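Review box. Two proteins, two foldings.
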Amino acid sequence: MATIKQIRANRRNAKLSTGPKTQEGKDRVRFNALVHGLRAESAVIPGEDQAKFDRLLERLTAAWGPQDDQEKDLVEQIAVSQWKLARLDRNEAKLYEPGALKAKDFALAIHRVYLTQVRLERSISASIADMERYRKIRLARQADHQADPKDTFVPGLLWGNNKGGRTYSVLPRVRGLDGVLREIPRELLGDVPESPEPNGHA
């Protein structure tokens, strides 16, 4: 255990070191704390292909069609998590190479890979859920701004799927006697399912 004198000396010495000053120095130490790359400041770490990540982001952007900065951030978050999952798969394969790890370390390494994999998959699911929630609110706000104050009914937005099924992504609304538009409860909409099927389209 460090003595009081040692702690004070360490604090004095720490004040003398302020880190790299030049951009070159900063770039050199940027990845110093990097162990497996999952917490890197940049999604693409040394040895990986930036163009590949850019193509992944482009594909996801085309698929989701983000309409504002919030949606673009969520698409980027999905891309980063998917990129890290792919990196994790590559690194997991290396654990099985002969002599890569001692037997006692192998189980711990596999367990850590599994936990990280679960965290990243949850991050993707959470980002998708956030996107759908945010988009629903954004579309509802747009409908509010476009609605004529004299309208007594706003139809909402239907989501269709390949099997001919339909569901509301934004519920229809009716104007009450107080002049406020309120969503019609889903249970009053008959046989329209509660949530869209994964392969549907708007």
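Next protein.
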Amino acid sequence: MTALPLDPKDGGGRFPGFDAQAQSAHWDPVTQGVVLARLGRPTDLRFFTVAEEAAARALFDQLLDQRQEPRVPVVNMVDARLAEDQTDGWHYEDMEPDPAAWRSTLAELDSEARERHKRTFAELSWDEQAVLLKGIHAADQWRGRQASRVWSLWTRYACTAFYSHPLAWDEIGFAGPAYPRGYKNLGLNAREPFEVADARPGQDPAAHQATSETGRQR
């Protein structure tokens, strides 16, 4: 899937001209403070080491298909969660708690890249990274772990961070919290005056063809 521009001023997005920030006057003051702070300077890294940051940054760019600026600073947002031990409150019984699992799986990602290409994951080309990750996603086991659970760890944190950011809201046409304004036009395709129509309604943003080793479409 090709990434859609995150810049609302770039007419190539699905919701051209839409800017979630423009709706901030309709949010309550506390929400304004929380959301708009995400648009400021990203917090300094406190959890990831230099090597882990490089691997995580490349991993998040691949998972979210972020290839151009402005990027949502996902690595900084995940780092802050892990530094403050703000996990999901659970972890798989056969994996470490999330902070330790992040350290070990990023290290294994670099180890896998070195074994295959003699370089770290961040040093690989975009296509090399993509092939490596597709292999992990399709596997049952990956370096002693259940691959689907590693994938769950990575994608849960990546998507939670990404879709909490107003730049991602611009991409999906989300106007932000409904409180206190609310919505009055309820129903399928019933837009509010401040919402923008999807410029590509016939394009499924999740459409893809994943093929197994036997060639069967999954």
